[in-house]
Write a structure and sequence with these properties.
Oligomer: single chain
Mean pLDDT: 85
CATH architecture: Orthogonal Bundle
Radius of gyration: 21 Å
Structural class: mainly alpha
Number of strands: 0
Helix content: over 70%
Shape: elongated
CATH superfamily: MetI-like
Strand content: under 5%
Low-confidence stretches: none
Distance between the termini: 44 Å
């Protein structure tokens, strides 16, 4: 056990610069993708919940396409197929864009369900106070529905973080790609995979803890 711990620490110590760069790239991709998935989910979820013509139908198609195709196919499509149409992105853009599109589709359903769960009497109260439909959404539906959608959104954000590891298929130097490349050169496979597991566990637990803290702060009065 002591020897295994030493080997793991030696692996990290010997390759700390490359691993740190890979970790930073993972964090950057995750931050872009999570922020984007939040915005996509909020806007398109609201459009579907309120059945806005055209936008609601297009959102439904987007959600079905993304949810029913493997994310690896989506990554390959953006990285390999779009350049055939004259649309070229660098590896970093493909990395955050692909997981953002994936997360946005799932998050739009999270928000749609949250907004639709808001009782109509609350919206009626907003109208009675003189709010216009958009103001009612901002002041009534969004604060309540957003809180309802938060628990299911947590799983989406965690999946977005974990799916950044799939960027090894396009050679983007995030943590998994960097670690596997080092492993191929040094043959330290056990140390490499153990380090990956520890880091991803730490990242996911930290993200979960932060969002759970936010959830507890934003909990509806009757659920506290």
């Amino acid at each position: 056990m002591i020897l295994a711990t030493y080997d793991l620490w030696a692996f990290v110590s010997d390759n700390q610069e490359e691993l740190l760069d890979g970790l930073l790239n993972t964090l950057k991709v995750s931050a872009f993708a999570i922020a984007g998935a939040f915005v996509i989910g909020l806007v398109l979820g609201a459009a579907r919940a309120h059945r806005i013509p055209v936008v609601s139908q297009l959102t439904a198609i987007y959600v079905e396409v993304i949810r029913n195709t493997p994310i690896l196919v989506q990554i390959f499509f953006i990285f390999y197929a779009l350049p055939q149409l004259g649309i070229v992105f660098d590896q970093f853009t493909v990395a955050w864009l692909s997981v953002m599109i994936w997360g946005g589709a799932f998050n739009s359903e999270n928000f749609r369900a949250g907004f639709q769960a808001v009782a109509y009497r609350y919206r009626e109260a907003g109208y009675a106070l003189g709010f216009a439909p958009f103001s009612t959404f901002l002041n009534v539906t969004l604060p309540i529905g957003g809180r309802i959608a938060l628990p299911s959104s947590i799983n989406t954000y965690i999946s977005v973080l974990k799916n950044t590891s799939l960027m090894y298929v396009i050679g983007y130097a995030e943590l998994t790609t960097t670690s596997l490349n080092i492993s191929n050169l040094t043959l330290q496979t056990t140390e490499s995979l153990t380090m990956l597991a520890v880091v991803y566990l730490t990242l996911v637990w930290s993200l979960s803890a932060l969002i759970r803290l936010l959830e507890s702060r934003l909990a509806l009065p009757e659920s506290r």
